[in-house]
Design a protein that fits this description.
Helix content is 61%, strand content 6%. By secondary structure, the chain is an alpha/beta fold. Helix 9 (223-237) packs antiparallel against helix 18 and helix 11 crosses helix 13. The two termini are 40 Å apart.
């Protein structure tokens, strides 16, 4: 009778029971894998290590990944009931191989998304190389393109280990990446590298090799690198300025040589800030009067020189106090002598004069330097910033002397530094020096005005004009005709048509080139009267505006040309950021990670906004289809 009742109850049939157990097991497997995916994502976003030194059951620190799984389990009873020791042996999803597979699945989806955004449109490459922690040469690739919404994008795509930095080796690796992701080299319309010979060489450089495959892949030397070369060359050209930076490094090294001296610097700053507040020369508000340390100038980043100068100006009095303490209480004669020499140098009028002068000059150039570090900067706007920088330096040269001299006098008075009589005769030192004025019958003011102030600014302007002499580059000159600033003041139909005929003939048919002239006339009248498009200032904003207002479909030829111009690279700052991520990821303790794992970690850290768009279920499905799995998902 009991057997008959069981037979009549279909829910007790063996196939139904097995199916119910299988469904529950699949849900548990997906929950377990979902937990591992969340852990992998977070660790990759933060460039944290995955594994620990000892991942055994008795380990007190089994690594970030397992610790994060435990943390998630502590907040969710369902997760706690399915992960780690409570998971079946064939579906734990916590092994290092599984972690790398999950990471690679997400990274592959990110690369596919970037490739889909590019589609069949034109693109530009930004390439740079650097040495990683394990002394291997790594080449970073960034793709620059305009997406369907008209936004200019620069996306980190991959990093590849290369045997050497020969141009042929770099091209071979880049061609392999293009082939693997179905990127047609004929769609290449721009190349952005630094000024190294293997990159910019006219005959055998990387840019020349790609030009053989695609004659319209125009090369532009990185603007940020050019600015760096210009500023370094200018500082070395004027000997007194070069000596100033050497002395500045000496002061920073002496004051920052030990924790004790840094502590004395902080104490001196606190005392100085309290004194200035007590006499109402400093205000008090949230975030004001921050205490810091002297900044050290780096050889490869000119912005660090500006930070070093500004930090010494801010902490001038406190730095002098520390140096005087070392002169009095130094451990040996060497420390006392170096500190006395540094204090004498720092409190000289010439040092203060050049200190404030470099603050003025580098304050102007730092705006350009910071702008060139931005992602998706268009080349016409960059040229405007270069022109503005030159103009401000010229203005400082022509009419800034009196104001600057008053600032120097005020600084000397506030820091009790003796001011020379500017009208007295300038006395040269003993012996002959090539940087001393030839005419010895001059005043001190003449020496500082002409031999230092004007000479330094002129050298700076000369280097900027030499490094950024784009007037000779016809491509950029003609491209400026599309500039929307000042209500399309630079708009010239003939220049735009010449630009298409000479530099982009492969992107327009003969019939389209004939139609372009008529379309440009309508375009100009429409843009100058359109309330949303008449006051734009950059080519990037114009491209976005044309797409958002649906004008891109009306003036499709103009839109196509604007997108081509936007592909011309400005700087390789995005590749430099990629190398910064590489230093965070591949550290001294993680110097044996393979190239694929490194590239996947860097990609998720850099392009996390894309990785965030993928649902966990889609990642699980792709992970399951990657290869045969024993457990169902």
């Amino acid at each position: 009778m009991k057997s008959c009742e069981d037979l009549m109850n279909q829910s007790r049939h063996i196939d139904k029971v097995m199916r119910r157990q299988s469904s529950e097991q699949i849900l548990n497997n997906r929950l377990r894998l979902r937990t591992s995916i969340d852990c992998v994502r977070w660790l990759a976003y933060q460039s944290c290590s995955f594994r620990g030194h000892d991942e055994g059951p008795t380990s007190k620190n089994p690594g970030n990944f397992r610790e994060m799984v435990k943390l998630l389990a502590s907040y969710n009873d369902k997760v706690a009931a399915t992960v780690l020791e409570k998971a079946p042996h064939n579906a734990k999803y916590i092994s290092p191989i599984i972690q790398k597979e999950i990471l690679h699945v997400i990274a592959s989806k990110v690369r596919r998304k970037i490739r889909e955004d590019i589609g069949d449109s034109k693109f530009c490459i930004l390439v740079d190389e650097a040495r990683d922690e394990s002394k291997r040469e790594q080449m970073a690739l960034v793709l620059r393109f305009v997406d369907k919404m008209g936004f200019l994008q620069e996306r980190f795509f991959d990093i590849v280990s290369v045997e050497n930095t020969c141009s042929s080796t770099l091209k071979k690796e880049l061609s392999n990446i293009f082939s693997h992701h179905a990127l047609n080299v004929e769609n290449l319309r721009g190349q952005g590298y630094d000024g190294a010979s293997n990159m910019r060489g006219e005959w055998n450089g990387l840019q020349a090799l790609f030009l053989k495959d695609c004659p319209y892949a125009y090369y532009v030397h990185c603007f940020a690198h050019r600015l760096q070369l210009a500023l370094v060359a200018a500082s070395r050209e004027v000997i007194l300025v070069h000596q100033f930076f050497s002395k500045l490094d000496l002061i920073v090294n002496i004051v920052g040589a030990s924790c004790k001296r840094n502590g004395e610097l902080i104490t001196a700053q606190q005392a100085e800030i309290s004194r200035l507040i007590s006499i109402d020369e400093l205000g008090t508000s949230s975030g004001a009067n921050q205490i810091g340390n002297l900044q050290r100038a780096g050889n490869t980043r000119w912005g660090s020189h500006f930070s070093s100068v500004c930090s010494l100006i801010k902490m001038f009095s406190a730095t002098g106090t520390v140096l005087q303490n070392i002169v009095t209480d130094g451990a040996n004669y060497s420390q006392r002598g170096d500190a006395d020499s540094a204090y004498t140098t720092m409190t000289s009028f010439q040092f203060i004069f050049i200190l404030l002068l470099m603050k003025e000059i580098m304050g102007v150039t730092d705006v350009l330097c910071q702008a060139l570090q931005q992602r998706s900067q268009d080349i016409l706007n960059a040229m405007h910033l270069v022109s503005t920088t030159k103009h401000l330096l010229q203005k400082l040269r022509d009419s800034g002397w009196d104001t600057f001299l008053r600032d120097v006098n005020s600084f000397c008075e506030s820091n009790e530094v003796e001011m020379p009589d500017m009208n007295s005769a300038y006395k040269v030192g003993r012996g002959k020096s090539i940087h001393q004025p030839r005419d010895t019958n001059i005043t001190i003011e003449h020496h500082f005005h002409f031999d230092i102030f004007l000479n330094t600014i002129d050298t700076q302007l000369k280097e900027l004009n030499c490094r950024f002499n784009e007037q000779t580059l016809e491509l950029l000159t003609l491209s400026s005709a599309l500039d929307p600033s000042d209500s399309y003041k630079s708009f010239k139909v003939d220049d735009i048509c010449t630009l298409v005929d000479k530099y982009y003939p492969a992107d327009f048919t003969e019939q389209e080139r004939m139609l372009l002239k008529f379309q440009l006339n309508h375009y100009h009248l429409d843009m100058t009267k359109h309330e949303d498009l008449c006051h734009l200032s950059t080519l990037t904003a114009l491209c976005e505006g044309l797409t958002s207002t649906k004008k891109a479909s009306v003036y499709f030829l103009v839109d196509r040309l604007i997108r081509l111009i936007l592909l011309l690279p400005v700087s390789t700052a995005t590749t430099e950021r990629a190398f910064s991520v590489m230093k965070l990821t591949k550290t001294r303790l993680r110097n044996k990670m393979n190239d694929e794992f490194l590239g996947d970690c860097m990609l998720l850290h850099t392009e996390r906004e894309i990785a965030d768009t993928f649902s966990t279920d889609s990642i699980i499905d792709e992970f399951y289809s990657l290869k045969h799995r024993k457990a169902q998902l």
